[in-house]
Design goal:
The chain is mostly helical. The protein has 20 helices and no strands. The chain folds into three domains: 99 residues, Alpha Horseshoe (Serine Threonine Protein Phosphatase 5, Tetratricopeptide repeat); 108 residues, Tetratricopeptide repeat domain (Serine Threonine Protein Phosphatase 5, Tetratricopeptide repeat, Alpha Horseshoe); 227 residues. The longest helix has 35 residues.
Length: 499
């Protein structure tokens, strides 16, 4: 079998997913032509697709020794070196690729990728390379796909949408572009999740083994499940803030609304999931032990928060403290449920692929909670002196601390799972530990404030009043009015005369 025939058979085998077969074919070709640079690059490309960048680097290096002007070998060295963290070497070979093929769109895309993903991103040069690549191949859907991915790294979301739309207009069945469109829809609003799931189901119907589509579908499911706990957090925090200022009459209106709204919010989550996900998908993942435990904790947390809301509307001091503690307890139970759902997502079952590290979602949670929750807590702290119930601020602070502790812990788990991709891991660990300590201190101080802080209301048990006046002294008898008996007192020696 000639080298060209072997290369073609290996290419076909790789395209249909038979990587090992393609590797065996190329190994046979290498035995007949050990110095053929095309065979060496093909072996390196297969090694890179198997996530073996060091092996890919070795094959590509041999090809460059044989043919120093081979552009695809330099491109493979650039990508493999970047995977190993050797960015200076990767950028040097990327620039060599563009020098060898200055009017080739794939070469410009490799250089743009390196400029965007390196430790010192150069957005200007990367965008210039992307623009030139599109001008060279405006009708190539693959080029638009690569350009959209790189613009995503540059956080130019408008450019991402534009090139995804352009690529799908050229090839409506392009799997990578459809996945990117699903990701865009999933991050939006106005029914975006439903549209994203529809796209993903179409991708899986076209390619049932598509790992990325399965990952995104699992993310849609588990993020929706985590919203069950997030609803409890939201209601607990909002009710604590209202209880600081609102009189019992207003709380008697809010607590029934809370009792009704929370089950309706949960029902909405499950109804949308059943409508969006494939048949049997939700049930298969709900019946896992970890998920059942998380659901039980979420239900218990909702009941405890509802009970705390009812108790807090009392005029008695003891009931206000008890209701605040129940709000905190329900928040902690919801935090455990949220953490269980998150770890269930990161530890998939047999039907799901291994997910990404989940860092983007976890870090986004930290930003959202810090951006919206922290200002509310700061304003409440500054104004607590004018609040109707100052001690309830402890409940608000403790709820915020428990929520923030949970999302920071989940971000820390995500960092640990993807620790190979973080260059300053010790600094990240120190910041995470500091945030966890601060959130834990907020829960501790808030709980203490609930117990010992000022609560205005009636005491359930009235203590006896302390007397304010001393008893009136007895009058002193003047000594001149006292009379001493004139007869002697009988002694024990003399008998008492009979009368």
């Amino acid at each position: 079998m000639s080298v060209q025939v072997a290369l073609e058979r290996a290419r076909v085998a790789k395209e249909i997913g038979r990587i090992e077969q393609a590797r065996q074919i190329l190994g046979g070709a290498l035995a007949h032509a050990p110095d053929d640079p095309e065979v060496l690059v093909a072996l390196g490309d297969i090694a890179f697709s198997l996530d073996r960048p060091d092996e890919a680097l070795r094959w590509a290096g041999q090809a460059i020794v044989v043919d120093p002007e081979r552009a695809d070998a330099h491109a493979l060295v650039a990508m493999a070196a970047a995977s190993l963290g050797e960015w200076d070497r990767a950028l040097a070979h990327g620039e060599t690729v563009v020098r060898l093929l200055p009017h080739d769109a794939p070469s410009l895309l490799v250089l743009a990728w390196l400029l965007a993903y390196g430790p010192h991103p150069d957005g200007g040069r990367a965008e210039a390379a992307l623009t030139e690549a599109v001008s060279l191949a405006p009708n190539d859907a693959d080029v638009h796909c690569s350009v959209a991915e790189t613009y995503g790294r540059l956080t130019d979301l408008e450019a991402v949408r534009r090139h995804v739309a352009a690529g799908l207009a050229l090839d409506p069945t392009h799997v990578d572009l459809l996945r990117m469109q699903a990701r865009i829809e999933f991050g939006g609003i106005d029914g975006g999740r439903q549209r994203a799931v529809e796209i993903l189901r179409g991708v899986l119907a076209q390619s049932p083994s598509d790992v990325q589509a399965k990952r995104l579908l699992a993310e849609v499911h588990w993020r929706a499940m985590m919203r069950l706990a997030a609803w409890v957090w939201c209601f607990a925090g909002c009710y604590a803030a209202a209880a600081m200022w609102a009189p019992p009459m207003v709380l008697r209106v809010l607590s029934p609304l809370l009792f009704v709204a929370l089950p309706f919010a949960w029902f909405g989550v499950f109804r949308k999931l059943r409508e969006q996900l494939p048949a049997g998908y939700l049930r298969a993942r709900t019946m896992r032990p970890r998920t059942l435990l998380a659901l039980a904790m979420a239900a218990a947390s909702g009941l405890v928060v509802d009970l705390g809301a009812v108790v807090m509307r009392s005029q008695y001091v003891e009931f206000v403290r008890l209701g605040s503690l129940l709000l905190l307890l329900g928040t902690l139970a919801a935090a455990l449920a949220h953490l269980l759902f998150y770890t269930a997502w990161l530890r998939p079952g047999r039907d799901d692929p291994d997910p990404d590290d989940g860092f983007d979602f976890a870090f986004g949670q930290v930003i959202v909670i810090a951006a919206f929750g922290a200002p509310l807590v700061v304003v409440a702290a500054l104004a607590r002196g004018w609040a109707r119930q100052p001690a309830v601020f402890g409940a608000l602070l403790a709820v915020f601390g428990a929520v923030f502790f949970t999302v920071v812990l989940e971000a820390g788990i995500a960092v640990w799972r993807g620790r190979g991709g973080f260059r300053r891991l010790p600094a990240i660990a120190l910041v995470t530990a500091a945030l966890l300590i601060g959130a834990g201190a907020a829960v501790w101080w808030g709980g203490g404030e609930i117990v010992t802080g000022e609560v205005r209301g009636r005491e359930l048990v009235q203590a006896p009043a302390t007397p304010t006046s001393s008893p009136r002294p007895l009058p002193t008898i003047p000594s001149r009015l006292l009379r001493t008996p004139s007869w002697p007192l009988p002694s024990s020696a003399e008998p008492t005369p009979s009368r």
